[in-house]
Design brief:
This protein is mainly alpha-helical. The protein is 57% helix and 0% strand. It has 9 helices and no strands. It is globular, with a radius of gyration of 16 Å.
C-alpha cells in the first residue's frame, strides 16, 4: 500500500525511528505502530467528517451500513468505539488498511487531506499551508495542534491507539507536517485521481 509506505518512510526518516509504545507493540497491529495508525486514523476520520458534512440532509446520509466497499460502512465507529485499543487495535489496523488500499482510496485520502488542512487553518494552525506548499514545513507545537484538532478527536485517537494524549500530540506535531508534505508533491492538495495514484504507488 503506497500510503502506508509514505507514512512509514516519514517515521523512519532522518528524525529517527518512532519507537512503539510498550503497551502496544507494532506487531499487534499487523505491522502498524500506534503513531502510524494515529496518522492514518486522523486522515480517515477527517475524510468521514468531510463527506458527512457534504452529504448532510441528503437521502441515505446514514453511512453506518454503506455499500461503498467499507469506505464509509462502519467508519462512524472507527474512532468512537468504546472498546479502545485493548480489543480493537488490530481490527482498526485492518480497517485502515482497507480504507486506504481499495478502489475508493483516492477519494478518502483527498477528502481527508482537504478537511484536515482546512480544519487546522480554521483552528489557528496557519502554518499547515506550508506543509502543502513547496517551501520549508513550518513547525507546530503539540498544544497548538491539540487545540485545533479538538479534544474529541484527540481523545478518540488516544483511545484507539493506546497512546496518551500528550504522547500522541507530540508525535503528531513532529510527523504530521512531513506526512502532509509527502502527500502533496505538487505543492497543492491532490485531486482524487492524484490521491488514488499516491495511495497505490510503489
Amino acid at each position: 500500500m503506497g500510503l502506508l509506505d509514505v507514512v512509514n518512510g516519514v517515521l523512519a526518516g532522518p528524525r529517527g525511528q518512532v519507537q512503539p509504545q510498550p503497551s502496544q507493540p507494532a506487531s499487534s497491529g499487523g505491522g502498524m505502530s500506534p503513531i502510524t495508525m494515529a496518522l492514518l486514523g486522523l486522515l480517515a476520520y477527517k475524510a468521514f467528517k468531510g463527506r458527512g458534512a457534504a452529504a448532510q440532509g441528503a437521502p441515505g446520509a446514514d453511512t453506518t451500513a454503506g455499500s461503498g466497499g467499507g469506505l464509509l460502512g462502519g467508519l462512524g465507529g472507527l474512532l468512537g468505539g468504546a472498546g479502545g485499543a485493548q480489543g480493537g487495535f488490530a481490527d482498526l489496523a485492518g480497517r485502515l488498511g482497507g480504507l486506504f488500499g481499495g478502489a475508493s482510496a483516492g477519494g478518502t485520502l483527498s477528502s481527508g487531506l482537504s478537511t484536515l488542512i482546512n480544519g487546522l487553518q480554521r483552528g489557528g494552525v496557519g502554518q499547515a499551508q506550508s506543509w502543502v506548499g513547496s517551501g520549508p514545513n513550518q513547525p507546530v507545537a503539540p498544544d497548538q495542534l491539540g487545540a485545533a484538532l479538538g479534544n474529541d478527536t484527540v481523545d478518540a485517537l488516544s483511545r484507539q491507539t493506546g497512546m496518551s494524549p500528550s504522547d500522541l500530540l507530540s508525535a503528531l506535531s513532529q510527523h504530521l507536517p512531513d506526512v502532509v508534505d509527502q502527500l502533496t508533491p505538487q505543492g497543492r492538495l491532490p485531486s482524487e485521481g492524484e490521491a488514488q495514484q499516491l495511495a497505490h504507488a510503489g
